Automatic annotation (TrEMBL):
Domain of life: Bacteria
Top-level enzyme category: transferase
Lineage, broadest ranks: Bacteria, Bacillati, Cyanobacteriota, Cyanophyceae, Leptolyngbyales
Similarity-based family: Belongs to the N(4)/N(6)-methyltransferase family. N(4) subfamily.
Protein name: site-specific DNA-methyltransferase (cytosine-N(4)-specific)
Length: 437
């Protein structure tokens, strides 16, 4: 590829068969054969393990290499690498997601003892619940906690039962099982106990006046225990998840220690990713008040106006990126022409520059972590969330990477989806890079 040339972009095959494949929802879903560990807890829009396998194979990654996911989320890449016997490391700045990823690669607990201990906790919880049926005795969150979660995201009685279960988990805590038991509760809360719906935004659905909290939790424990019977027999391999900012990788990773990157960073989509995990983050104590929430948001790449702060300066990394500046100017011009004057709307253009600036800062720091010849895959998607101005995220990210010395190998089409606001076809792509060293 010549200097300044555009990377090859996978064209859209418009045949009926190709459309059927790309639009099938299961292309981005978890296959039944992949449930072990992956399904202990995951984001609703997590990319699938089969995508990780595809790029590990394409890159020729073996047990002699080391893979990084710098936007680890709930651990899809590191879990899949561990299953395949490939050393891996993740970096995640959301404490709930970090916790989930860390637990999902911990396969040491004895499954039978885990189930036995959980049953003891369940029995103690049930015994207390049978004595506290009148509404006056229902436990609830404190004022600071209540302000952090979506209103009516969990009904009073299921919340009471969940808090009682959490207390008994703490009272009977066994270090060998405590994290797995809490993760099982987090999954149960968001999937069956709460009133939350995900599709794709998190929202409050129909209220559930009651829920079999203890039974749902024990079912999640049983699923983990069942997985551990097989996973616990796997040969040991490095798999860890650091709690850190992806723009400050040298704080947790050694120089020239990574052979491949497979990841999906946030998109510039005005989505507050902390809302997706808010309820379980509060219940498990990862976020206690607004100060904790602010600290969390400051450690994230800026992808929405709700985590933009006056002191932010990542936009300085893209002052020489003409497409980023053009899009920001178009967003601002559209805002003015439409008479949009709210505080959040005034931040749309800046949020866009901060997002791409944060990604540029990440890619700049990453260069020191990579070994020469390292191969990278970034799953990103087109967006039109800012006043319907189209943002071709993959192409812009490729341009930024090239300006930082990366080779842009390709932009592969992963799938297409229909934007709900505009009914336009949007690309979700994998930006494939190589670091020459």
């Amino acid at each position: 590829m010549t200097e300044g040339s555009k990377p090859p972009v996978t064209p859209l095959d418009t045949s009926a068969a190709a459309k059927q494949v790309r639009y099938r929802s299961e292309i981005n879903q978890l296959f039944a054969a992949d449930h072990a560990a992956h399904n202990w807890y995951r984001f609703v829009l997590s990319y699938p393990p089969h995508l990780v396998r595809d790029y590990l194979q394409r890159f020729g990654i073996t047990s002699e290499h080391r893979v990084l996911d710098p936007f680890c989320g709930t651990g899809t890449t590191v879990v899949e690498c561990k299953k395949l016997g490939i050393p891996s490391v993740g970096v995640e700045a959301n404490p709930m997601a970090h916790f989930a990823g860390r637990v999902k690669v911990d396969w040491h607990p004895n499954p039978d003892r885990l189930l036995e201990h959980a049953t003891q906790v369940a029995n103690a919880t049930i015994a207390e619940l049978e004595q506290t049926t009148a509404p006056v005795y229902l436990r609830s969150l404190n004022g600071d906690q209540e302000k952090l979660i979506l209103k009516n995201s969990i009904s009073p009685l299921p919340l009471h039962k969940t808090l009682v279960l959490l207390e008994h988990l703490q009272q009977q805590a066994d270090a060998s099982f405590y994290d797995h038991e809490r993760l099982a509760l987090a999954k149960s809360v968001v999937s069956a106990i709460s009133n939350l719906n995900f599709g794709p935004e998190v929202c409050v659905g129909r209220a559930k006046p009651d829920a079999p909290v203890v039974d749902l939790w024990l079912n999640a424990i049983a699923a983990i225990a069942n997985d551990l019977h097989a996973l616990g027999q796997s040969p040991p391999v490095e798999a860890m998840v650091h709690y850190a900012d992806s723009r400050q990788l040298l704080s947790v990773l050694d120089p020239q220690s990574i052979d491949a990157v497979i990841t999906s960073p946030p998109y510039p989509n005005e989505k507050d990713y902390t809302r997706t995990t808010r309820l379980e983050s509060v219940l498990l104590g990862f976020i206690k008040d607004k100060a904790d929430l602010r600290s969390l948001k400051q450690g994230l790449v800026r992808s929405n106006t709700r985590n933009v702060y006056t002191v932010d300066d990542d936009d300085r990394w893209v002052v020489d990126q003409p497409e980023v500046q053009r899009i920001a100017n178009e967003i601002e011009a559209r805002r003015i022409s439409l008479g949009k004057t709210s505080g959040f709307e005034r931040l749309y253009a800046r949020a866009t520059k901060l997002y791409f600036g944060g990604m540029a800062r990440h890619l700049a720091e990453l260069r020191q972590i990579l070994r020469p010849g390292a191969q990278l895959a970034y799953v990103v998607g087109d967006q039109a969330s800012y006043l319907r101005v189209m943002i071709r995220t993959g192409q812009i990210l490729a341009d930024i990477a090239r300006s930082l010395g990366y080779e842009v190998v390709a932009i592969d089409l992963f799938r297409t989806r229909i934007a709900t606001a505009t009914n336009e076809q949007m690309r979700e792509e994998v930006v494939v890079l190589r670091w020459p060293g």
